[in-house]
Amino acid sequence: MLQVNALTKQFGGQPVLRDIAFRLVKGEVLAVLGRSGCGKTTLLKILAGLEAPDAGTLSLNGQNLLPVPPNERQMVYLYQEPLLFPHLNVFENVAFGLHIRKVPKAEVVEQVRALLAELDLTEHGQKAPHQLSGGQRQRVSFGRALIIRPRLLLLDEPFGNLDAQTRADMQQLFLRVSRQHQITSLFVTHDSREALTVGTRFGYLDQGVLTSFASVNEFIQDPRTNIQAELSFWESIQQTTFQAKNMNVVLSAAEAPLPRQ
What we know:
Elements: E1 2-11, E2 14-24, E3 29-33, H1 40-48, E4 55-60, E5 63-64, E6 75-78, H2 90-100, H3 105-118, H4 134-146, E7 152-156, H5 164-181, E8 185-189, H6 192-198, E9 201-206, E10 209-213, H7 216-221, H8 227-255
Parallel strand pairs: 3-8, 3-9, 6-7, 7-8
Antiparallel strand pairs: 1-2, 1-4, 4-5, 9-10
């Protein structure tokens, strides 16, 4: 579906992306892990048409995207901060893209109601964005993206500003909805656990060079992802906790009064 070849970008003579190449077919989620400043956002902006590459090719379903303006690429770019229209309620925020496309009112109502139910937002349809929690606002933003059935969804650490539990909930929601609707996505993050949770394919971006992995095991084993070290850390914590509990049991038994003869 998406074909990227030899994509290169520099800023002020400094390379940001170096010969980026990958393929992405319908329904896949490519999770790209990388540290801040590695070029993840620049890659997304080039795909969205917000930045022009210095070299390389970019095609979607065989169409050369480079001359196509951003508003005609049928892609949606989601940021950390959900950019909702403050003067529109939840229902109208989600419906906005359909109104722009002159979809009949009855069809708009039907589609938006169904999507709000899917996103657990039915009871919030008439609320203004400022009346919602951070996670709810991000769900509205997600709904506004999905309603227009984009050819490609670009996600720039979209859950990075949420608390841990809400972030985990949003990751599961993204998984469920993307699978149900066969959404093709490029999801960039600096969180290895998030990458493992949302991705069906995996990449690592380091100093502008993208490494693609043939399997999740290769992704985990690559020392740059730090996943193996993190797993070892939690295993050591579990082992320490287990030993401490056993020691408490032994001490409790030793301190217990002897039974009377």
